[in-house]
Write a structure and sequence with these properties.
The chain has 340 residues and is an alpha/beta fold. The chain has helices spanning 2-19, 72-85, 117-131, 144-158, 189-198, 207-216, 221-229, 244-256, 260-264, 285-296, 320-323, 325-337; strands at residues 29-32, 36-39, 43-47, 56-61, 92-97, 138-142, 170-174, 231-234, 237-240, 271-277, 307-313. It starts with a helix and ends with a helix.
Length: 340
């Protein structure tokens, strides 16, 4: 009897541990047919409280050359806000994913080419299946992560992940153009950053060296420091926490991918919300006009269709979670908290 009690006590402790927020989730290895081992995406979890088990999940997807940890501070603020304003029965968990070739997912076995939006979205489905999770209620994607989120929704609609899939109730696309990027507009800041990174010495002498070098080339201090934050120590030197060439492949796929049809006709039960940063340089007049037409036509939707909404984040450039995190929370939190 004493032994049984001790075993039960150990089991209770283990259950409590598993129900608590796991700060870092490394790629999970899984065997396929006993012949090879694959790994799923690395991730980090954020919850407002570790005392209660979660029952609702938000995936947060970073942009090109970023990592999930770039969104840690914002996610903590959003999680706290949702805890205060959601129904008592709602306990939110936020999963900050490192997309393929980025952060701790860089170099994982099984995340094979082609490095495109389709496979980046499929990685999310593999992550859910490997851990036995429920499908996410909400997906938030910034920049390239926004298009990964759109591809995830589209693949869910098409049955690419199986019949048991549950569509996200909300999809948030943060400062990401839904359509193909016209060649005329492919000479922006991101392209200049990629060209610069390809010209850098390897390994990088130090974080300070990188920040100073990029500022000397004319990049802003905030962007230069952000690039520096994506370095990781490798012996006496620094290297980037992403696979550069594979990231370039993903960026090319981002530019070529087109999800206008998804915005125009979202699936039943889903709301796609696009947030445009007021001072972002990627919103050309014809794109804004098309988005406004789609959002305005939502009043005529049928019960068989989902919804699309458009929001403008004031006083913010492309880095929305850095430039105006409070304003972004004020846009996202009320609508997410309203989910029944």
């Amino acid at each position: 009897m004493a032994r049984t009690i001790r075993n039960k006590a150990w089991l209770i402790q283990l259950t409590r541990f598993l129900n608590q927020s796991t700060n870092l989730g490394h790629g999970l290895a899984r065997s396929i047919g006993g012949t090879r081992t694959l790994e799923t995406l690395a991730f980090e979890e954020v919850k407002a409280s570790n005392e209660k088990p979660y029952n609702s999940t938000i995936f947060v997807l970073h942009g090109l050359l970023g990592t999930g940890r770039n969104w840690r501070s914002f996610s903590r603020t959003l999680a706290s806000n949702l805890s205060d304003h959601s129904p008592p029965s709602r306990e939110w968990r936020m999963v900050l994913v490192d997309l393929r070739n980025h952060g701790r997912s860089a170099g994982l076995q099984g995340l094979n080419p082609p490095h495109n939006m389709f496979n980046a979205a499929k990685d999310l489905a593999d992550l859910v299946k490997s851990h036995g999770w429920a499908w996410p209620d909400v997906v938030i994607g910034h920049s390239m992560g926004g298009k990964v989120a759109l591809q995830f929704a589209q693949s869910c609609m098409c049955g690419d992940y199986g019949a048991s899939i549950t569509l996200p109730k909300q999809l948030w696309v943060l400062d990401s153009v839904a359509g193909t990027v016209h060649p005329e507009y492919r000479d922006g800041e991101v392209e200049k950053v990629l060209v610069t990174l390809q010209s850098l010495p390897s390994p990088i002498p130090s974080r300070k060296w990188l920040v100073d070098h990029m500022m000397q080339l004319g990049f802003s201090k905030s962007l230069s420091e952000w690039m520096g934050s994506n370095l990781k120590r490798s012996g006496d030197h620094q290297s980037f926490a992403f696979s550069l060439q594979a990231a370039i492949d993903m960026f090319n796929s981002y530019q070529e991918s087109d999800y206008w049809s998804l915005l125009e006709r979202p699936p039943k039960g889903m709301e796609i919300s696009l947030v445009r940063a007021e001072n972002s340089d990627r919103w050309h007049p014809e794109i804004i006009e098309r988005l406004e037409r789609i959002a305005a036509s939502e009043r005529d939707i049928t019960e068989e269709e989902g919804k699309m909404s458009l929001h403008v984040l004031p006083n913010a450039g492309h880095w929305v979670h850095v430039d105006n995190p409070t304003g972004l929370v004020q846009i996202l939190a009320p609508r997410i908290a309203s989910l029944g």
